[in-house]
Automatic annotation (TrEMBL):
Domain Nudix hydrolase: start-end pairs: 23-161
Organism ancestry: Eukaryota, Viridiplantae, Streptophyta, Embryophyta, Tracheophyta
Pfam families: NUDIX
GO MF annotations in UniProt: metal ion binding; pyrophosphatase activity
Cofactor(s) essential for the protein: Mn(2+); Mg(2+)
Superkingdom of the organism of origin: Eukaryota
Keyword vocabulary terms for this entry: Hydrolase, Magnesium, Manganese, Metal-binding
GO cellular component: cytoplasm; nucleus
Protein name: Nudix hydrolase 17, mitochondrial
UniProt family annotation: Belongs to the Nudix hydrolase family.
Length: 208
């Protein structure tokens, strides 16, 4: 099934197809992300180059990543992509599952089992099923750490950013530069001493 075909359909509702695992309702979702092109680094993709997409709850301004129920007529990857399209209006390339978390629903006081995937966004849709009931906002990783209202999603975010390279600290860069400079000076001193020793050897030979 092409996931974009779902954009013209209303969001799924009801629980008659809902999956459960040992009594836990199974939900799946994505951390939609993009990589800013402004920063080029020899270290690869840095955490500072990432932006992630959060959405508001339908009933409050609380921020979260898109997620919803995994149903019996779909595999987990399709469910994650479908929920992300329905709630956030983006499609993209799905990565490997980040993990599973048991969490308590704030609205229902029940425990759920959540799975999260990274989704590299390739297209943002202008129209999607829940456009009128949610807002979507791109954030840096640090902004998302502060804004995300659900602890288990914050843990999923950390699992996601762990796949990327942190920016080297300024102190470490300065130390590396100092070490390189010290090595250069030591090499110059060694060469200088070697040259002076050679000159003294020649003088001694001539005197003798």
């Amino acid at each position: 099934m092409q996931i974009k075909k779902l954009v013209s359909l209303p969001s799924r509702t009801g629980r008659h197809l809902q999956r459960y695992n040992q009594g836990f309702r199974q939900v799946v979702g994505c951390i939609p992300y993009r990589i800013r092109e402004t920063n080029k680094s020899s270290f690869g993709t840095l955490i500072e180059d990432l932006e992630v997409l959060l959405i508001t709850s339908q009933k409050s301004p609380r921020m979260m990543f898109p997620k919803g129920g995994w149903e019996l007529d779909e595999n987990i990857e399709l469910a994650a992509s479908r929920e992300t399209l329905e709630e956030a209006g983006v499609v993209g390339l799905l990565g490997e599952k980040l993990g599973e978390w048991i969490f308590k629903s704030k609205s229902q006081e029940k425990f759920h089992e959540g799975s999260m995937f990274p989704l590299l966004v390739t297209e943002e849709l202008d129209v999607w099923p829940e456009k009128n009931v949610r807002r979507r906002i791109w954030m840096t990783v640090n902004e998302a750490r502060e804004a995300c209202s659900q602890l288990w999603m914050k843990e999923a975010l950390e699992a996601f950013v762990g796949q990327f390279t942190p920016r080297p600290r300024l102190e470490e860069e300065q130390l590396a530069a100092s070490c390189r400079l010290a090595l250069c000076r030591a090499e110059e001193l060694r060469l200088s001493i070697g040259s002076q020793t050679a000159d003294e050897d020649v003088d001694l030979y001539l005197i003798s």
